[in-house]
Fold:
Amino acid sequence: MRDTSQPKELMQTELRQQQQRVELFSEVTLKIRQSLQLKEILHTTVTEVQRILQADRVLIYHVLPDGTGKTISEAVLPDYPALMDLEFPEEVFPEDYQQLYAQGRVRMIADVHNSTAGLADCLVEFVDQFQIQAKLIVPIVQTLNAHTHGTSSSKNHLWGLLIAHQCKNARHWVDFELELMQQLADQISIALSQAQLLEHMEEVVEARTAELQEVNRNLQQEINVRMQAEAALRQSEEQLRLITNALPVLIAYVDDQQQYRFNNQAYQDWLGQSPSEIDGCHLQQIWGDECYQRMQAYVETALSGRVITYENDIVLKDGSARSVNVTYIPHLDDSKAVKGFFALTNDISDRKAIERMKDEFISVISHELRTPLTSLHSALKILATGQLGTLSNAGQQMLGIADDSTERLVRLVNNVLDLQRIESGKVVMERQACNATNLMIQAAEVMQAMAQQHGVTLMTQAEDLSIWADADYILQTLTNLLSNAIKFSSPGGTVWLTVACHKKPSSAKSKKQTLKSKIQAAYSEVVFRVRDEGQGIPANQLERIFERFQQVDSSDSRKKGGTGLGLAICRKIIEQHNGKIWAESAPGHGSTFAFTLPAFDRVHHH
Ligand code: ADP
Structure:
């Protein structure tokens, strides 16, 4: 029984021991791994090995690249000398030893003095200094990964040695002790690679941190610059507001979508809407459909890049009607594209009121003058017949002058009243279809006597066209133009009166129209022309002569008996017919006065 039970007990003890060793290994490994600090790891290792092996001294010897080395961690009993920081001479650790250790050699020496240990005498002397009797040495090997030319190779390098000393006595080391030492040496080499990795990572992190700090600095700088720019912008905007708010006119900026982008305080005062309320609103939204209709064409002109000024009537928040003068100034970007326009609107109601008063005054005076003038005129006419007694030659001449002047005065008064009536909108053009040829013949008949008087030939070229107009007023226009043409012609000259279809310039819309409506649109206007061979009109006067009392030569009224109102009346009449009137001339080459009228077109009017 004893014989068989003994090996069994032995086995059990061994098993228990093995179990304990495994536990011990893992416990020590865990302790070592708890730190990332290499120094601490080394210290824990020597302390633990010393404790478990009950060795007198345990140390870690670090091998330097030049072959020398020194103790960098040590656990030693107080009775024995410490080797810490001691540098070993080269001969203690020759090159070939290093190579052997790098390949994994271990040394287990039970008694340094025993010849079987094979230690050189000098070495024995050296170890005696430190009272070393037995020693156990395992290498700490580091695997270096070298990357060259795309291929990676690994090389074992001896980093150091883990050494246990027995000083008190010689000692037979057992396998377990060697195993523990080897295991821990491996742990150290792992810790070394990790430390290296960590160091590398720290370098990377440091570099990255520096980079980020640089980026941050730049960002901060950029933010500062922007904040400064913003502050400057805010200040200049405030200044702009201050100026524009102080002015009693509407000042705005409208973008190419016809939306307000800037408004001054006057908008609040006039319309009761604050600049912030108006911001982003469409023009139509602010002014209402009716008022917007009157603005639209001008807005489009501004957005096509042209400066435009016009007059409009608006209603303020208190319900009062105002006349305004509006100017749009296009805003072009660097590439000359229209981004929007600046709008200036000022109140001209007072000026308009004065103009109205003046017109009314003239009209009243003229009206009051007409009756006495008419009787004066007829009285003079009767006197001229000689029915009431004959006059001397000189008296007859005087009478002629008086008659002429009175006639002029009557014309003037009639013209003033005419213009006044048409401008006030009190007269309604009674439009109907009329034959252009008939009108031209009538006008020519009326003017024939005057033409003969001036030695001027009157030529008409008729065309069978119908117009949609008030025949009386068109006749007045034609005779007015003919009278001017005759007046400003030299004797022997010719005056032509013509009419023709007028091709309207095709609009963008016409693309969508049918052929029939295209033809109608193209021929829906006729143009009348009165051409003479007279003195002509300078280019800078061509527009001005259509204004009231404007004459090329201020002596014209006296010399030619004009009033300076004829063309103004003509323009009013034609505008009332939705037509256009203009003059073309080159001084010395005669003049042409032309006007358009809507054609009478059956499809349209029936
Ligand atoms: P007026 O009664 O003076 O003719 P209008 O309004 O009819 O007034 O014409 C204004 C001015 O235009 C004239 O005084 C004259 O200077 C110029 N004018 C008009 N028609 C002609 C023409 N056919 N040739 C040259 N000048 C003209």
User: Anything to note?
Assistant: The radius of gyration is 59 Å. The pocket of adenosine-5'-diphosphate is lined by residues 484-485, 488, 532, 534-535, 537, 545, 551-553, 556-557, 562-568, 591 (CB under 6 Å).
